Amino acid sequence: MKKVFITRKMPEQMVQQLAPYYEMIQWHEVSTPAPSQYIGEVIKDVDAVWCVGGDSFAIDTLSKAKQLKLIANFGVGYNNLDIDSMKKLNILGANTPNVLNDATADLAFTLLLSTARRIPQNMKYIEQNQWTGWEPYQGAGVDLSNKTLGIIGMGKIGQTVAKRSIGFDMNVLYHNRKRNEEAEKKYGATYCDLNTLLSQSDFIIILTPLTNETRNLITLEQLKLMKPSAILINAARGGIVNEDDLYIALKENLIWAAGFDVFESEPISNAHHLLQLDNFVATPHIGSATIDTRNAMMQLNINSLIALAKNEPIPNLIY
Ligand code: 8YV
Question: Is the entire prediction scored with pTM above 0.90?
Fold first, then answer.
């Protein structure tokens, strides 16, 4: 029987699907990863690893894994994995594409609407008993309809956001490594360079993976190109936007507001500098966090692991 290391406590009904195929070694905690020394020991004789986005494996850990064939990663983004080392060591990687497109696009739009209509601030206003009268601009935000939406990263999730923008009669610009004809045909999205997108969009949604090319893609220089009325949403990865520069831009009203689901170093606490600002809205990396989507993601990982055990073609390989 093959052996799998499950790096976090995953739901029992999901894990049990692996029981006919694997001897299972499961770390007993869900939110805290196992110590690296423990992982270094466990990984030595396992055939597969099931990990989450918060896990990473250094080259010296991977080198100890003499039988490891597959790392199944709970997430579509896999910047946590050292793909170059995995390739060198003939370890395959699998992820969870497509099943989270709707949930993540919904969250991106939720952040945009929450930021544009100042939902958290307005809720705080009631909670603090400040709703005592009426003024014309009380609680006022900005319209989404008929505005220009700039999407950075026109992959599957970007396209799902573009689809939603039709309901808001928005004009869509996008920037991507390559042109996406489907997005152009189906959703009327117009390709442009990054600076044009930044300067012409009313709202900018980041949905590109974190890579060497996209790390610090948005610094003060790019923030200064945006309209003072612009809203910046990041539903992709922390590290794409420089958080210190974003703080300056929001504080000095170089842009109007920002809504982020992802941060450079997660989890963040309430002491995070961006949370001290009135024009910043945050969620705790919940892009794919619906019960339906999380179940579907787990199922994809399980399918990949079972295929390995059965010696069948492995679905959702990264390379
Ligand atoms: C996960 C994600 O929550 O799919 C992704 O890329 O960021 C999220 O769906 C994350 O990977 C935790 O495992």
Answer: yes
